[in-house]
Amino acid sequence: MAEYLGRSWKKQELLSLIGDPKQIAGVTRSTLEEGKAAGVGALQVNTGGGLEFTVLPGRGMDIAGAFFQGKALSFLSPTGITSPAYYDEPGLAWLRSFFAGLLTTCGITNAGAPSQDQGRAFGLHGRLSNAAAEDVSVEQDWQGDEYRLAVKGRIREAQAMGENLLLTRTIETRLGARGFDLEDRIENRGFDEQPLMMLYHCNFGFPLLGPNARIVAPIRKTTARNEEARRDRGVEEARIFPEPIAGYQEKVFFHTLAADPEGGTFIALLNRDIGDGTPLGIVLRFKLDELPQLTEWKMPRKGFYVLGLEPGTVTPVGRGALRAEGRLPMLAGQSEYRIHIRFEVLSSTAEMDSLEKEAEGLIGK
What we know:
Elements: E1 2-4, E2 7-9, H1 11-15, E3 26-31, E4 41-46, E5 51-56, E6 62-68, E7 71-72, E8 103-106, E9 115-117, E10 120-122, E11 134-143, E12 146-158, E13 164-174, E14 179-188, E15 194-195, E16 199-204, E17 213-216, E18 219-224, H2 227-230, E19 251-257, E20 264-271, E21 280-287, E22 293-301, E23 304-312, H3 319-324, E24 330-331, E25 335-346, H4 349-364
Antiparallel strand pairs: 1-2, 3-4, 4-5, 5-6, 6-7, 8-16, 9-10, 11-12, 12-13, 13-14, 14-25, 15-24, 16-23, 17-20, 18-19, 19-22, 20-21, 21-25, 22-23
């Protein structure tokens, strides 16, 4: 059954009331035209359940703006959306094209701090987000009494006489949904093993992020990346947020999560009052065997007020550092790796109470 306006509908019931399903939900293609975004392909997804988000095939099938009932979930940086033509790799130059959004994907063979590895220089967070997708497709049709929406695209990371990897991303939702499923299939089409450094840089902003917001997850341990993150009770206050602070310096934390018997876990940002008395939250669910690391990027600076929650195959300390520590995951030639993340919006205190209890239960196991 399709869920819409708080009730369940059969296909024929809804079709008797509408002329085109896009009247209530659907995917709309467009191409951005102005400024540095010119030429970037976009897919606007409206679930009809209050959730709208923009997928960018022109930027690695990442997700820019995301809204629930008109309220922003994601943070957008002052760079705006930029075309891959403006990508600048060395050092920290990646930041000049970091629009943030609900999701910026870092990888495939590099994610994290700039580093040197086996004589090669790698810039911040890799090339994936600045590559355009190909074989982009949209599916929107009935499956029985459910109306399904799905977008799909493939992104290459390849170099002549070097790595040959292909990421196939599918983002799927349905009529009435408050969330979506993201599935990535990463293929090493070459014959030599390659680093597998995937980091899902999810970026949340106002009004979801605010002084009443806090991180909820089955966290067993929190570690500060450096002295800056330990400063001013950094670890103790890693899960709560102040008002914007002028000149705030980023703090990065690594969280160790508990999981259920099937390896499932989650990370959530919950705000029981976004400023108008209403609750709003988002939860990301994934498997620890697929994404064993979780990074938090805390940045409540005036004019750049953002929280990054980043499940990944690695911590973002740099490719060279991970190899030196013996912690660099590899993907064998002619093999593949699958990752699934479920994004879900929460809009009631009852749902938040339930999630808090779930976290407590997993920690207790």
